[in-house]
Structures are given as C-alpha cells and as structure tokens.
Please model this.
Amino acid sequence: REGLSTTLLGQSIVYRETIDSTNSLAQQLALGGAPEGTLVIADEQTSGRGRRGRQWFSPPHSGIWMSLILRPELPLAHAAQITLVAAVALNQALSRATGVQAGIKWPNDILFNGKKCCGILTEMHAEFDQIHHLVVGIGINVNVAQDEFPAELEGIATSLQAIRGERIPRAQVVRTVLEEFEPLYRQYVLNGGFGTLRDAWKANNITLGRHIVAHTARGDIEGLALDIDEFGVLLLEKADGEREKIYSADITVINQ
Ligand code: BTN
Model:
C-alpha cells in the first residue's frame, strides 16, 4: 500500500501467499459485504482461471494475480464493458511502470509482439437486472522466464521479464494498475458505461484495421475489424462487404 495514491481501489487489501483463485475469494468476500475497491492479491494460484473455462498458469512469485471488487450502480447490460475499461488501464499501466508498449486485442488481452502478457477475467453478480458486484480478475506474467511457460503456451504467452530482459519488481506495477484504473473506473460509473472511454481504448488497441477471425458461438466470422461502438461491440466487414456486429468472441489476428 506504500505510496499508493488511489482513494478507492486497494484501500482494503486481502493478501494470500497461496490461493486457489483470487477471483473465487473475491466473489466470496463480495457476497459477504466487502467494500468496493477491495483488492485480493496472491503470490500463487493453484487453480487460476482464464476465460472460457481455461486454466491460467499462475506460478509462485512470478506474476501479479489479483482481483478487484467493484460495485457500480449500473444496469447489468453494462457489466461486460468493465473488461474493456480494465484493459485500457492495464495497457497504460504497463507503459508507465515498465516502458513496455503492448496493445489490446479485443476484447481484453494485452499482447506484445503477438504474445499475451496479461489477461482479464470479469465475473459478475446481479440482482434482477442491476449489477450487485463485479470481480475484475487481472493476471500479469511478470517474472516468468520464457522457457518456464508450459509447452502448450509456447508462442502464445510472454512475460514482462522476457520482454524487458530483466526482472521487474511487482509492487510498482500493481500500484500503477490501480492508479490508472481508478479514474477510468470513475468515468465508467459517472457516464453509465464505456462510451466516453472509447477513444482511450482505440489509442491502446492493436485490433482495429486488422484482418481477424472471430470465433463466436455461431461459428467463425472473418473480416476486417472496422470499429467498436459505445458498448464495446466490435464491427467487422466481411469480404463480401457485409458488416457484422461481434458481441462476444475470441479473436485471431491474421498476419497480413
Ligand atoms: C484470460 O485471459 O483468459 C483471463 C485470465 C485472468 C487471470 C486472472 S489471475 C487473477 C484472477 N484470478 C483468476 O483465477 N483469474 C484471474
């Protein structure tokens, strides 16, 4: 907490040396009434969770495995947009704290040279159609040597240490993430969503203008990523000129 200049995020901190998943603990604490801004952070996760039921490699002392409890008074429809807000904060924080100029792959991966160094997993709890709380889980591969990643992540994952060629102290990165996230989060709450942060997202993204394949529940859709709207929905232009809105997908950027 030393030197932390935020007034909401990280005012209350729950630290564990080892935990199954910081998102799971944050969910429990949130249901138990933990205050907004509570930061749950661990040195190691034994079952770190990724999006779509995947595992998240979370070895001891090598990364930032953290979750934030947020309680925006917003309709549930706006909940997913917090992930885009968090991605902007993360990308800005990496640049400011470590000089690493990475970029956002829609919706919420941070990539450097095509490899992922951070991921975000947002989980939500609703009461009727209002948000009760959000848990924004952030994983940053910090001091993982490139050859320490499991074989299946080869060519897919990277770390700040691998990028910078030196060990990076984690505390400064955590502090910077909270400092970058707080003002963006306040804007998201005040303006009732992602809308006013769209330009900031665009300034940090590496998706728009690229040919991509969106792997959606309705199948793969290929096209040029044209834009995102004020709800964070991705607009694709297919080869036949037809435009499609992508609400939720994993995407692959095609090199060309
Ligand atoms: C993804 O890209 O698939 C999302 C990865 C999110 C990982 C973080 S690490 C801290 C928090 N706790 C978890 O179990 N997952 C998130």
In short: The chain has two domains: 13-203, 211-253. The longest helix spans residues 170-190.
